[in-house]
């Protein structure tokens, strides 16, 4: 990387990103995303919070075992039981890190922890020392550092570095900071902490005021050399700093930044789509870098300028982040070899020939209905197959919907519940509403519909529709997804998928304070 400093990219999509309501991921889904992040050449992958639940422990352990080129991290409160659990989960990691934290702002120490500042320092130091039993790569986070007193922040930073922390993270946990102010905090720590040169200063910014990326970049300009971020800016509340925006801002403005990442940025769009497909959180068209309109030009003046010289209106190349018009388009005559090869290029692998055969059969079925199959279709197809396989107590067998002008739409369907088929019919204000009512009359989930979202996967009237359904029951939120060229069928699949999650009843616990 020439003489530029290395800016470490710490991706927390699998941990903080998963804390978005309804974004919970299965172990296999976490592994898929982790492998995509590894291809992106992310330095550190925070795989989860091992103490949160047995499922999260297993997911962190699975990621730790399968990822070889990126460092795998597990989160732990500054408690012995958390740290020990994280150490166990990371036991098979090629390179592991324990990330421990405790709150440092006056309001958190007084109202949440009910601890005195000296007690907080003592517990932070003890946590770092315990984590060092498992690994020499220990990160400490001062939760709510953005609202902490600078003198106390300097004291605890010095203490944890002395105890063995190799990275010290300064989170803007509630998204309260302003770029100039936040950059000044990092500058003050570098100047005032005597042993600051023995650890990497990191930042983890939330987007409550829409400033997560700006605050992160201000910190980098003032000496931070690790940024904690997520794909698509996914995360608690308004989300985190978006990895793709951080990476491309630093790379595009090398005249201002004396550092750069080691990312293979051509993998960004693939990662974005994978995370969006698995979590059900669609990317808005005007989203920077990865939105569908990020490199689109509608204005005639803009189009004319770009045709004459791309740099008149484009500050980075679409190909550099993974957009490309030169994609292989598959169709009904494409064979297994081309299918497997394209999925391999997209980072999708199958554990067995049986899984490949099932996916290929789905591909052929789709190709009979849709003339051209694009990368987005393939990713949706594989995600749809995984959705069917996970916790599937309820399965959509058949659906018939009638909707005509002046008449009330109605739906008739057959569902298989635990292998037993049941029929139902219902009317509604529209065909989708009728289908949902028919499903609910059989499943009786008792959940409330909180979100219904439709996204066209590709262009054209034969495009697959990708539907996200969000249900809430008893304070628990789940997302369901479905894809089909028939939007009503896609909607029914999404509702059934969400119902399966409600009925499965598994719930990832988030111990208080996990929002670093």
TrEMBL record:
Residues 7-269 form the Pyruvate carboxyltransferase domain. It catalyses: 3-methyl-2-oxobutanoate + acetyl-CoA + H2O = (2S)-2-isopropylmalate + CoA + H(+). InterPro entries: 2-IPM_HCS-like (IPR050073), 2-isopropylmalate_synth_dimer (IPR013709), AIPM/Hcit_synth_CS (IPR002034), Aldolase_TIM (IPR013785), LeuA/HCS_post-cat (IPR054691), LeuA_allosteric_dom_sf (IPR036230), LeuA_bact_synth (IPR005671), PYR_CT (IPR000891). Its cofactor is Mn(2+). Pathway: Amino-acid biosynthesis; L-leucine biosynthesis; L-leucine from 3-methyl-2-oxobutanoate: step 1/4. Mn(2+) binds at residues 16, 204, 206, 240. Keywords: Amino-acid biosynthesis, Branched-chain amino acid biosynthesis, Cytoplasm, Leucine biosynthesis, Manganese, Metal-binding, Transferase. It is an enzyme of class 2 (transferase). PANTHER family: 2-ISOPROPYLMALATE SYNTHASE 1, CHLOROPLASTIC-RELATED, HOMOCITRATE SYNTHASE-RELATED. Homodimer. Catalyzes the condensation of the acetyl group of acetyl-CoA with 3-methyl-2-oxobutanoate (2-ketoisovalerate) to form 3-carboxy-3-hydroxy-4-methylpentanoate (2-isopropylmalate). Belongs to the alpha-IPM synthase/homocitrate synthase family. LeuA type 1 subfamily. This is 2-isopropylmalate synthase. It comes from Marichromatium gracile (Chromatium gracile). The lineage of its organism: Bacteria, Pseudomonadati, Pseudomonadota, Gammaproteobacteria, Chromatiales. The gene is leuA.
